[in-house]
Amino acid sequence: MIGLISINHKTASLSRREQFALGEEEAVQLISQWQGEQGLLGGFVLSTCNRLEIYYEAPNQVTQELESTLIRSLYRFKRIRHSGDESIFTTLHHTEAIRHLFRLACGLESMVLGETQILGQLKEAYRRATTHEQSTAVISRLCHRAFETAKKVRSEYLLSATPISAGIAAVDYLRQRITNFSEQPVLILGAGQMAEVIAHRLQELQHPMVSIYNRTRERAMAFAEKHQISSVYSDDYLPQALTTSPITFVATSSLTPIITEELLAHIPQGERYFFDMAVPRNVDPSLDEVPHLHLYTIDDLRSQQYLSGEEIHQHEEIRSYIQSMVQDFLQWCDAAEVRQTIGLIQQVSHQLLDKELSALPHDLSEEERKLISRWDEHLRTTYTTAIVSALRELSETTGLKTYSKTLLQLFTHIQGKLPSHDS
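User: That's the sequence. What structure does it adopt?
Assistant: Structure tokens below.
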């Protein structure tokens, strides 16, 4: 059973979202902890500037009790005092969680509707889970179907969404608000994926004055060479970098603010613009009160709209296609559950046969033993084939999983009372 715990720009403020942001190592640790403490089969974490989404596979039904337990565990994991504000989280399970993931991959749940960067972030989250053996057969199938859905929706419906991302939206946002934007030097602070998008957009606009700062010089130089940036800063040269550029896009992975009042005290005063793309924020929020300093965050992109009117009218067509993909995945899950039950029936029948054959009288000849064994195997095959055939027929005819679940529980109970193969 697939479950989802989410906090996003629709349910919580930036200041609240940044408290729950998870780095890569934290994401792996949290899923590992939940596997050990809560018995989850696996999961993956998507943590971006707009959202934290934790997808997981539970061995049984996802209950409100389990969801509440996992949310409280997240509070403890992040060392955040629990104050009864669980309403900031959205919890979905199975069909609704699957549908949400498919829509998310298509960019239909993003703050900037139709943005494309989320798909790459989802692929990275899945890759990380796979690397650390936190994925499962169900999660793997789920993610690949989500990627397939996104590919078709983007190629056939959201044609103009191809170049969109939050980074591009941020550049365009300031370009619309700063009258002489194209004449102002711009600094990109960071050299990650978001910084890449920002640099690419500035290149498209043929912005003449772009510089890059990254703490590690080697990475800063590689980034500058890739994007044909001549002004490069690193190490302790952040004050100098800020001095040269009144417009700064901040896109690092720092967990604490790196643009502080103390740092700006060494910078000449003047009109300055900061667009903080990071969550947790990399620009101290208190700087918003400083005169002549204009501070923008990811939440300022809420009003951006990039889909055309025609694409918005296609919403019903998109919804219908996504629903068909959700149903396809649900049918695969049902079939997988039936296959699991069939495998268990066959396994338990073998164990029962081995148990009975081990109780044969010792004075039987080898020929007699072979004959009994052959007929026992024939009867076992006859009975299990009848059970399996009936299960397949009922499952396909009624579409109900009740029979499969009941048989799974029944044969699991029987197996628990039988000696193992090794004994």
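Residues 307-313 have pLDDT under 50 and may be disordered.
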